[in-house]
Each structure stands twice: as structure tokens, then as C-alpha cells.
Specification:
about 100 residues; mainly alpha
């Protein structure tokens, strides 16, 4: 797989708005970033853009991982609470009221 194909595959993994974020972070123009991420390596800034894109992707993946862990923890806490006698009593009263 050549660099252009590798870059195209990587570009597909970037979320909507990534080009703007990378442009803002690097101070490199939006269209220059877009061209490089689409495989045009003529810009002397190409290595900087690719490095910034990799950092952006890694940061996003880490944030998603942390958010997922927090969500799982929250859901586990809710499940644990629902197993308590007070929650079971409250839920049974609500279900009787709705009937």
C-alpha cells in the first residue's frame, strides 16, 4: 500500500471537523491541510500536518476511551443502586401507581 492509500485510509478515520481543528492547531491553512490529508504531499508543511493529524486522532481516541469508561462506571452505579432495597421499593410503588 503506498503512502497516498495509507493516508486516504487514515483520513477516513478522522471525524467531521478534524481538518478545521488540525488547521487551527497548526496555523496552517484549511485547504492546505485538506489537500495533504487527501494525498497531495507537495506542501513543505506535509510532515507537520500529518504529525498533527496523528496527534489529533490519538487524543480523540483517548478521550473516547475515557468517556466510555466513565459511562460504564455510571451505568454500573445505577445497576448497583437499582439492586438496593430502597430502589426496589420505590420502583414497585411506581409500577403499582401506573396500573
Amino acid at each position: 500500500m503506498d503512502n497516498t492509500n495509507s493516508l486516504a485510509e487514515f483520513r477516513k478515520k478522522l471525524r467531521y471537523g478534524a481538518v478545521r481543528s488540525i488547521s487551527d492547531k497548526t496555523g496552517i491553512g484549511y485547504y492546505t491541510v485538506l489537500k495533504v490529508l487527501n494525498g497531495d504531499m507537495r506542501s513543505p508543511k506535509a510532515p507537520d500536518i500529518i504529525q498533527a493529524a496523528i496527534e489529533y486522532y490519538k487524543d480523540r481516541e483517548e478521550k473516547l476511551k475515557q468517556a466510555t469508561q466513565q459511562l460504564k462506571s455510571c451505568l454500573a452505579s445505577i445497576d448497583n443502586f437499582l439492586d438496593t432495597p430502597i430502589a426496589k421499593k420505590a420502583l414497585s410503588q411506581v409500577s403499582h401507581t401506573n396500573n
